Amino acid sequence: MRRKQTAIGAALAALAVLCAMFATSASAAPAWKFEGKSLEGSEVVLGGAIDSLLTVPGLTTKCENFLYKLTVKNEAGTGKGEVTEVPLYNCTTNSSACTVQSIKAEALPWASKLTTVSTTPYIIIEGVKVPILYEGEECVLGGILVTVTGSAGGSINNTTETATFNSTTLTATGTSLKALGQKIEWNGLFPTEAFQWHREQALSVS
Amino acid sequence: MAQRTGAKRFLASIAKSASAGVTLALALTALALAGCGGGSSGEEANGASSTSSKDTLASAGTEAGSGAKGPAANNGAGPGADSQGQGGEASGGESSSAAQNAGKHGPHVPVPKGPQEQGATAEQMANATVADMSLKSPAIIASGGQPGSLSPTYTCDGKDSWPALHWSGVPEGTAELALYVMNVQPVEEKLFVDWAVAGIDPSLDHIEAAKLPKGAIVATNGFGKRGYSLCPQGRGEIYMFALYALPSHLGLRPGFDAREARTQILAVSGNVGLLPALYAHG
């Protein structure tokens, strides 16, 4: 009888441990929150990238001002949104031989959604399309139109109210940006602060 | 102490008791079927119910304070209200923590200098060579966001001959194909061509390693050699393999100047396939 009781006890203990594991690793769908309260209706997040580098192998493109307008909302408790505007300014490359003749975010709006991977909240931007036309007689991509497409997942830091995009966050979210038929790198740090109704309020995701 | 002893008993019983193992298996099955009760399955995970992720993020240090009780606790200045909040003013009914945060939050949109970048004009598009053909090599496999590594076999550390290349997407009406290998970073501020071959039959979809197809015309490369040579001057280089589709024959002769010919090629070619590759000595 006693042996039976211990066996049941062991099972319950294992159950508790597994419950805790499930609770922390499950792919939860987080919501947008202001001052800890779930957003009702929609809000506009407007900002400028603190840093953003797009690297087609060997050639990094940087825009001095990478602005964005993101409309966010919660649907059935899950954070969703749309990137509606991405004006870019003063874009250059890391090669003295290559200049950017034209670059523009296309196929807007880009849909976005929140997700959680191993307790970290992420924002996923889908449907990204950015054609870049490089220029330069001595530039290996001079005269060539390269189009960056795909989706990108960035980790959200509630403390700094920023979203970070890099190869680690893209891998974690199973997303990728592609050009020339292969994955490319995108490193960026984007503030996630409200512009409209909840201006000056702490924006978090959970 | 009594609890610790109890926990030890649980662990010991797991190790000793076969029947406990069976019970455990059953319990785990039940657990999986029941979803543990706390696993958030996407749609359910709102601010009020997703306690697990909420707790984790709370520890990350949000400044939300303690007022959050769920979606119903929204303030009166939400989008459902009238337009008083326009222009970014913090509306009435804000929590005291919001007031304290004033100045700390809010968007910091930098003022851009210069004009906004624009998409390619119709004229630029007409003159551009679009990277829409596929060029691949079994010897160059990309990993993550990095270009694929090239085996020493295909460099001056090995046989210094080209790898097999496969392509697709050659547009109809192409008269000939031209293959190039170039350093991505210029050498002494000049584009450096390691290999150029024109006159490739557009009906082909590949070339074999170290074997040129009939009719191919080989250029003089940046080393002054008529042929292929891929030899990084530093420790490593990123190279770009490029396949240009030409709508008309260029009439190039063996030993043609690869750099000059590329200018001609870009002037007429509307389509290219690109394959970056990385090579580092030893």
Structural commentary:
The complex is a heterodimer of chains A (206) and B (282). With 206 residues, chain A is mostly beta strands. Helices cover 15% and strands 54% of the residues of chain A. Chain A is built from two helices and 16 strands. Chain A has helices spanning 2-25, 167-172, and strands at 32-34, 37-38, 42-48, 51-56, 59-75, 78-85, 88-93, 99-103, 110-117, 120-135, 144-157, 162-165, 177-179, 182-183, 185-191, 203-205. In chain A, strands 4-5-6-9-10-11-12-15 form an eight-stranded antiparallel beta barrel. Chain A has a three-stranded antiparallel sheet with strand order 2-1-16, with no helix packed on it. The longest helix of chain A is centred in the first third of the chain and has 24 residues, at 2-25. The radius of gyration of chain A is 21 Å and the shape is elongated. The N and C termini of chain A lie far apart (46 Å). Chain B is α+β, with helices and mostly antiparallel strands and 282 residues long. Chain B has one domain (9-58, 128-280): Alpha-Beta Complex (Phosphatidylethanolamine-binding Protein). In chain B, 23% of the residues lie in helices and 20% in strands. Chain B contains six helices and nine strands. Chain B has helices at residues 2-16, 18-34, 51-59, 96-101, 122-127, 258-268, and strands at 129-136, 148-149, 165-168, 176-183, 193-200, 206-207, 217-218, 236-246, 271-280. In chain B, strands 1, 2, 3, 4, 5, 6, 7, 8 and 9 form a nine-stranded mixed sheet that branches. The longest helix of chain B is centred in the N-terminal third of the chain and has 17 residues, at 18-34. The radius of gyration of chain B is 32 Å and the shape is globular. The model of chain B is unreliable at 1-104 (pLDDT under 50). The chains are: A mainly beta (206), B alpha+beta (282). Chains A and B meet through helix 1, strand 2, strand 3, strand 5 and strand 7 of A and helix 1, helix 2, helix 3, helix 4 and helix 5 of B.
